[in-house]
Amino acid sequence: MDTVLKIDQEVSLASYTTFGIGGIAEYFAIASSEEVLTLLTEYAREHDLRVSVLGGGSNLLVSDSGVKGLVIKNEIKDITHKVENEKVLVTAGAGEEWDAFVLRTVEEGWWGLENLSAIPGTVGATPIQNVGAYGVEVGNLIEEVKVYSLREQKFIAMTKDDCRFGYRDSIFKSEAGKDLIVLSVTYSLSTTPNPQIHYKDLAEYFSNHSGTPSQLEIRDAVVEIRSKKFPDWKKFGTAGSFFKNPVISTAHFNELAKQYEGLPGYPIGDGTVKVSLGWILDKVCELRGARTGQVGTYENQSLVLINYGGATASDISNFAETVKDKVFEKTKILIEMEPTRW
Protein backbone atom coordinates (compact mmCIF):
# COMPACT_ATOMS: atom_id res chain seq x y z
CA MET A 1 0.00 0.00 0.00
CA ASP A 2 1.39 3.39 -1.02
CA THR A 3 2.14 5.90 1.73
CA VAL A 4 -0.11 8.96 1.59
CA LEU A 5 1.72 12.18 2.42
CA LYS A 6 -0.02 14.86 4.47
CA ILE A 7 1.36 18.27 3.54
CA ASP A 8 -0.26 21.41 4.92
CA GLN A 9 0.07 24.96 3.62
CA GLU A 10 0.51 28.27 5.45
CA VAL A 11 1.28 26.87 8.92
CA SER A 12 2.42 29.15 11.76
CA LEU A 13 5.73 27.97 13.23
CA ALA A 14 5.47 29.93 16.49
CA SER A 15 3.87 27.04 18.36
CA TYR A 16 6.64 24.71 17.17
CA THR A 17 9.45 26.70 18.83
CA THR A 18 10.22 27.20 22.52
CA PHE A 19 10.63 30.93 21.84
CA GLY A 20 6.97 31.02 20.79
CA ILE A 21 8.06 33.11 17.82
CA GLY A 22 7.97 32.53 14.10
CA GLY A 23 6.24 33.35 10.85
CA ILE A 24 4.42 31.09 8.41
CA ALA A 25 5.81 27.95 6.75
CA GLU A 26 4.81 27.85 3.10
CA TYR A 27 4.42 24.07 3.34
CA PHE A 28 4.58 21.90 6.47
CA ALA A 29 4.64 18.14 7.09
CA ILE A 30 5.50 15.68 9.84
CA ALA A 31 7.87 12.78 9.19
CA SER A 32 7.27 9.89 11.59
CA SER A 33 9.52 7.43 9.75
CA GLU A 34 12.55 7.39 7.47
CA GLU A 35 10.29 6.31 4.61
CA VAL A 36 7.98 9.29 5.04
CA LEU A 37 10.91 11.66 5.36
CA THR A 38 12.52 10.46 2.11
CA LEU A 39 9.15 10.66 0.30
CA LEU A 40 8.72 14.23 1.54
CA THR A 41 12.16 15.20 0.27
CA GLU A 42 11.28 13.64 -3.11
CA TYR A 43 8.09 15.72 -3.17
CA ALA A 44 10.12 18.85 -2.39
CA ARG A 45 12.60 18.06 -5.14
CA GLU A 46 9.86 17.46 -7.71
CA HIS A 47 8.18 20.76 -6.79
CA ASP A 48 11.42 22.74 -6.48
CA LEU A 49 10.87 23.45 -2.77
CA ARG A 50 13.64 24.19 -0.29
CA VAL A 51 13.65 21.75 2.66
CA SER A 52 14.04 22.90 6.28
CA VAL A 53 13.98 20.32 9.09
CA LEU A 54 12.50 21.11 12.49
CA GLY A 55 13.14 19.16 15.68
CA GLY A 56 11.98 20.38 19.08
CA GLY A 57 12.41 24.02 18.08
CA SER A 58 14.39 24.70 21.26
CA ASN A 59 17.44 26.28 19.66
CA LEU A 60 15.79 28.10 16.81
CA LEU A 61 14.72 31.65 15.99
CA VAL A 62 12.29 31.74 13.07
CA SER A 63 11.99 35.05 11.20
CA ASP A 64 8.77 37.02 11.26
CA SER A 65 8.54 36.71 7.47
CA GLY A 66 8.33 32.94 7.75
CA VAL A 67 9.99 30.14 5.81
CA LYS A 68 9.66 29.45 2.09
CA GLY A 69 9.55 25.86 0.88
CA LEU A 70 8.75 22.72 2.87
CA VAL A 71 9.32 22.54 6.63
CA ILE A 72 9.55 18.92 7.80
CA LYS A 73 9.06 18.25 11.51
CA ASN A 74 11.21 15.25 12.34
CA GLU A 75 9.30 12.89 14.63
CA ILE A 76 11.22 9.68 13.89
CA LYS A 77 11.22 7.72 17.14
CA ASP A 78 12.73 4.45 18.35
CA ILE A 79 15.26 3.42 20.98
CA THR A 80 17.40 0.30 20.67
CA HIS A 81 20.56 -0.83 22.41
CA LYS A 82 23.37 -3.34 22.12
CA VAL A 83 25.62 -4.39 25.01
CA GLU A 84 29.30 -5.05 24.33
CA ASN A 85 30.86 -6.01 27.68
CA GLU A 86 30.74 -2.75 29.71
CA LYS A 87 29.93 -0.61 26.66
CA VAL A 88 26.31 0.02 25.69
CA LEU A 89 25.56 1.34 22.21
CA VAL A 90 22.21 3.11 22.42
CA THR A 91 20.51 4.31 19.24
CA ALA A 92 17.68 6.83 19.41
CA GLY A 93 15.53 8.29 16.65
CA ALA A 94 16.06 11.98 15.95
CA GLY A 95 12.51 12.79 17.05
CA GLU A 96 12.86 11.36 20.55
CA GLU A 97 12.49 13.97 23.28
CA TRP A 98 16.01 14.50 24.64
CA ASP A 99 15.40 14.68 28.38
CA ALA A 100 13.06 11.69 28.36
CA PHE A 101 15.80 9.77 26.54
CA VAL A 102 18.42 10.86 29.09
CA LEU A 103 16.12 9.73 31.91
CA ARG A 104 15.76 6.35 30.20
CA THR A 105 19.57 5.91 30.14
CA VAL A 106 19.78 6.80 33.83
CA GLU A 107 17.02 4.34 34.73
CA GLU A 108 18.87 1.63 32.78
CA GLY A 109 22.19 2.43 34.47
CA TRP A 110 23.90 3.47 31.24
CA TRP A 111 26.42 6.14 32.25
CA GLY A 112 27.40 9.14 30.15
CA LEU A 113 24.48 11.49 29.49
CA GLU A 114 23.29 12.31 33.02
CA ASN A 115 25.06 15.70 33.07
CA LEU A 116 23.02 16.67 30.01
CA SER A 117 19.68 16.36 31.81
CA ALA A 118 16.88 18.92 31.62
CA ILE A 119 17.92 20.28 28.22
CA PRO A 120 14.92 20.93 25.96
CA GLY A 121 14.75 19.66 22.40
CA THR A 122 15.12 16.37 20.60
CA VAL A 123 17.86 13.80 20.04
CA GLY A 124 18.44 14.99 16.47
CA ALA A 125 19.67 18.40 17.63
CA THR A 126 22.41 17.04 19.89
CA PRO A 127 25.02 16.26 17.21
CA ILE A 128 24.16 19.40 15.26
CA GLN A 129 24.84 21.67 18.25
CA ASN A 130 27.33 19.34 19.94
CA VAL A 131 25.22 19.93 23.03
CA GLY A 132 27.20 20.32 26.23
CA ALA A 133 26.67 21.15 29.89
CA TYR A 134 28.39 20.70 33.24
CA GLY A 135 31.65 19.39 31.85
CA VAL A 136 30.22 16.97 29.28
CA GLU A 137 29.89 17.37 25.49
CA VAL A 138 27.71 14.96 23.59
CA GLY A 139 30.24 14.75 20.75
CA ASN A 140 32.56 12.76 23.01
CA LEU A 141 29.85 10.14 23.51
CA ILE A 142 28.55 9.80 19.96
CA GLU A 143 29.48 6.64 18.08
CA GLU A 144 27.51 7.21 14.88
CA VAL A 145 24.99 9.56 13.31
CA LYS A 146 22.71 8.22 10.61
CA VAL A 147 21.73 10.90 8.12
CA TYR A 148 19.93 11.33 4.83
CA SER A 149 21.77 13.41 2.23
CA LEU A 150 19.47 15.63 0.19
CA ARG A 151 22.22 16.20 -2.36
CA GLU A 152 23.16 12.55 -2.84
CA GLN A 153 19.67 11.20 -2.10
CA LYS A 154 20.98 8.39 0.09
CA PHE A 155 21.47 7.29 3.69
CA ILE A 156 24.92 7.77 5.24
CA ALA A 157 26.38 6.47 8.52
CA MET A 158 28.72 9.14 9.91
CA THR A 159 31.43 8.48 12.48
CA LYS A 160 32.39 10.86 15.28
CA ASP A 161 35.32 12.11 13.18
CA ASP A 162 33.02 12.68 10.19
CA CYS A 163 30.90 14.99 12.34
CA ARG A 164 33.83 17.37 13.03
CA PHE A 165 32.64 18.30 16.49
CA GLY A 166 33.78 21.59 18.01
CA TYR A 167 32.52 23.88 20.78
CA ARG A 168 28.74 24.07 20.07
CA ASP A 169 29.62 23.22 16.50
CA SER A 170 29.67 20.39 13.97
CA ILE A 171 29.76 19.70 10.23
CA PHE A 172 25.96 20.01 10.25
CA LYS A 173 26.25 23.76 10.84
CA SER A 174 28.65 24.24 7.92
CA GLU A 175 28.01 24.43 4.20
CA ALA A 176 29.37 20.89 3.84
CA GLY A 177 26.65 19.54 6.10
CA LYS A 178 23.66 21.75 5.38
CA ASP A 179 22.04 19.09 3.19
CA LEU A 180 22.29 16.33 5.84
CA ILE A 181 19.16 15.38 7.81
CA VAL A 182 19.81 13.59 11.09
CA LEU A 183 17.71 10.43 11.36
CA SER A 184 19.16 8.72 14.44
CA VAL A 185 22.10 8.97 16.81
CA THR A 186 24.08 6.15 18.44
CA TYR A 187 25.71 6.94 21.78
CA SER A 188 28.51 4.94 23.38
CA LEU A 189 27.58 4.67 27.07
CA SER A 190 28.85 2.47 29.87
CA THR A 191 27.56 0.25 32.64
CA THR A 192 30.62 1.24 34.69
CA PRO A 193 29.95 4.21 36.99
CA ASN A 194 31.88 7.27 35.84
CA PRO A 195 30.61 10.34 37.67
CA GLN A 196 31.66 13.65 36.12
CA ILE A 197 31.23 16.18 38.93
CA HIS A 198 34.35 18.34 38.50
CA TYR A 199 32.38 21.22 36.96
CA LYS A 200 32.12 24.07 39.49
CA ASP A 201 28.36 23.95 40.09
CA LEU A 202 28.33 20.18 40.55
CA ALA A 203 31.48 20.17 42.66
CA GLU A 204 29.88 22.68 45.01
CA TYR A 205 26.60 20.77 45.06
CA PHE A 206 28.31 17.54 46.12
CA SER A 207 30.97 19.13 48.35
CA ASN A 208 29.34 17.78 51.51
CA HIS A 209 28.16 14.53 49.95
CA SER A 210 29.49 11.37 51.57
CA GLY A 211 30.71 8.83 49.06
CA THR A 212 30.35 8.84 45.30
CA PRO A 213 27.01 10.18 44.02
CA SER A 214 24.82 7.83 42.05
CA GLN A 215 23.79 8.46 38.47
CA LEU A 216 20.29 9.47 39.56
CA GLU A 217 21.70 11.83 42.20
CA ILE A 218 23.81 13.54 39.52
CA ARG A 219 20.80 13.88 37.23
CA ASP A 220 18.68 15.27 40.08
CA ALA A 221 21.47 17.74 40.93
CA VAL A 222 21.68 18.95 37.32
CA VAL A 223 17.91 19.33 37.13
CA GLU A 224 17.90 21.35 40.36
CA ILE A 225 20.83 23.55 39.33
CA ARG A 226 19.33 24.24 35.90
CA SER A 227 15.92 25.04 37.41
CA LYS A 228 17.54 27.87 39.38
CA LYS A 229 19.51 29.22 36.40
CA PHE A 230 17.16 28.72 33.49
CA PRO A 231 13.50 29.63 33.03
CA ASP A 232 10.83 26.98 32.56
CA TRP A 233 10.54 26.85 28.76
CA LYS A 234 6.92 25.73 29.20
CA LYS A 235 6.10 29.08 30.83
CA PHE A 236 8.48 31.51 29.13
CA GLY A 237 9.50 31.93 25.52
CA THR A 238 13.21 31.12 25.41
CA ALA A 239 15.86 29.24 23.49
CA GLY A 240 18.06 28.67 26.54
CA SER A 241 21.56 30.15 26.37
CA PHE A 242 21.39 32.59 23.48
CA PHE A 243 25.12 33.32 23.29
CA LYS A 244 28.20 31.10 23.16
CA ASN A 245 30.98 31.47 25.70
CA PRO A 246 33.69 33.15 23.60
CA VAL A 247 37.13 31.68 22.99
CA ILE A 248 39.88 34.32 22.90
CA SER A 249 43.67 34.42 22.85
CA THR A 250 45.57 34.03 26.12
CA ALA A 251 47.05 37.51 25.63
CA HIS A 252 43.59 39.03 25.23
CA PHE A 253 42.35 37.18 28.31
CA ASN A 254 45.30 38.34 30.40
CA GLU A 255 44.57 41.95 29.45
CA LEU A 256 40.93 41.59 30.45
CA ALA A 257 41.81 39.77 33.68
CA LYS A 258 43.91 42.78 34.73
CA GLN A 259 41.03 45.11 33.93
CA TYR A 260 38.28 42.96 35.44
CA GLU A 261 39.45 41.14 38.55
CA GLY A 262 37.94 37.68 38.98
CA LEU A 263 37.11 37.11 35.30
CA PRO A 264 36.75 33.31 34.91
CA GLY A 265 38.74 31.74 32.09
CA TYR A 266 39.36 28.12 31.11
CA PRO A 267 42.46 27.35 28.98
CA ILE A 268 41.56 24.98 26.16
CA GLY A 269 44.91 24.67 24.39
CA ASP A 270 46.49 26.27 21.32
CA GLY A 271 47.01 29.50 23.24
CA THR A 272 43.29 30.14 23.70
CA VAL A 273 40.98 30.57 26.69
CA LYS A 274 37.22 30.03 26.96
CA VAL A 275 35.73 32.95 28.87
CA SER A 276 32.57 33.02 30.98
CA LEU A 277 30.26 35.30 29.03
CA GLY A 278 27.67 35.09 31.79
CA TRP A 279 30.17 36.71 34.17
CA ILE A 280 30.93 39.45 31.64
CA LEU A 281 27.23 40.17 31.09
CA ASP A 282 26.67 40.31 34.85
CA LYS A 283 29.76 42.00 36.22
CA VAL A 284 31.05 44.06 33.31
CA CYS A 285 27.98 44.97 31.28
CA GLU A 286 25.43 44.81 34.13
CA LEU A 287 22.85 43.22 31.85
CA ARG A 288 21.29 40.62 34.12
CA GLY A 289 17.55 41.23 34.09
CA ALA A 290 17.84 43.98 31.47
CA ARG A 291 14.70 44.43 29.41
CA THR A 292 13.49 46.31 26.36
CA GLY A 293 9.79 45.94 25.68
CA GLN A 294 8.89 42.26 25.70
CA VAL A 295 12.48 41.00 25.43
CA GLY A 296 15.11 40.76 28.13
CA THR A 297 17.85 38.75 29.79
CA TYR A 298 16.69 36.28 32.43
CA GLU A 299 17.01 37.49 36.00
CA ASN A 300 18.88 34.36 37.09
CA GLN A 301 21.06 33.85 34.01
CA SER A 302 21.97 36.68 31.67
CA LEU A 303 23.01 34.32 28.85
CA VAL A 304 19.33 33.53 28.42
CA LEU A 305 17.00 35.79 26.45
CA ILE A 306 13.30 35.78 27.28
CA ASN A 307 10.21 36.47 25.23
CA TYR A 308 7.90 37.85 27.91
CA GLY A 309 4.97 37.62 25.53
CA GLY A 310 4.28 39.08 22.12
CA ALA A 311 7.88 39.68 21.09
CA THR A 312 8.85 39.23 17.45
CA ALA A 313 11.96 37.68 15.95
CA SER A 314 13.08 41.20 15.05
CA ASP A 315 12.70 42.26 18.68
CA ILE A 316 14.90 39.34 19.79
CA SER A 317 17.52 40.05 17.11
CA ASN A 318 17.66 43.78 17.89
CA PHE A 319 18.04 43.16 21.62
CA ALA A 320 20.76 40.56 20.94
CA GLU A 321 22.65 43.04 18.77
CA THR A 322 22.51 45.57 21.60
CA VAL A 323 24.04 42.98 23.94
CA LYS A 324 26.75 42.14 21.39
CA ASP A 325 27.61 45.82 20.94
CA LYS A 326 27.91 46.42 24.67
CA VAL A 327 30.16 43.37 25.18
CA PHE A 328 32.41 44.49 22.33
CA GLU A 329 32.55 48.04 23.67
CA LYS A 330 33.68 46.80 27.10
CA THR A 331 35.93 43.87 26.15
CA LYS A 332 36.63 43.96 22.39
CA ILE A 333 35.14 40.44 22.25
CA LEU A 334 32.79 39.71 19.36
CA ILE A 335 30.28 37.21 20.72
CA GLU A 336 28.24 34.72 18.69
CA MET A 337 24.59 33.81 18.93
CA GLU A 338 23.92 30.14 19.62
CA PRO A 339 20.45 29.45 18.12
CA THR A 340 19.98 28.60 14.47
CA ARG A 341 18.14 31.35 12.61
CA TRP A 342 15.69 30.78 9.76
Automatic annotation (TrEMBL):
Organism, as annotated: Candidatus Kaiserbacteria bacterium CG10_big_fil_rev_8_21_14_0_10_44_10
- List the protein's name: UDP-N-acetylenolpyruvoylglucosamine reductase
Concerning its family, UniProt says: Belongs to the MurB family.
Top-level division of the source organism's lineage: Bacteria
Concerning HAMAP family, the annotation shows: MurB
Domain FAD-binding PCMH-type as annotated: residue spans: 20-192
Known pathway: Cell wall biogenesis; peptidoglycan biosynthesis
Q: Does the keyword Methyltransferase apply?
A: no
Q: What is its EC number?
A: 1.3.1.98
Provide the active-site residues from the annotation.
168, 241, 338
Q: Name one GO biological process term.
A: regulation of cell shape
The cofactors required by this protein are: FAD
Subcellular compartments? Cytoplasm
Q: What's in the keyword line of the UniProt record?
A: Cell cycle, Cell division, Cell shape, Cell wall biogenesis/degradation, Cytoplasm, FAD, Flavoprotein, NADP, Oxidoreductase, Peptidoglycan synthesis
PROSITE patterns, from UniProt?
A: FAD_PCMH
Under the heading InterPro entries, the entry gives: FAD-bd_PCMH, FAD-bd_PCMH-like_sf, FAD-bd_PCMH_sub1, FAD-bd_PCMH_sub2, MurB, MurB_C, MurB_C_sf, Oxid_FAD_bind_N
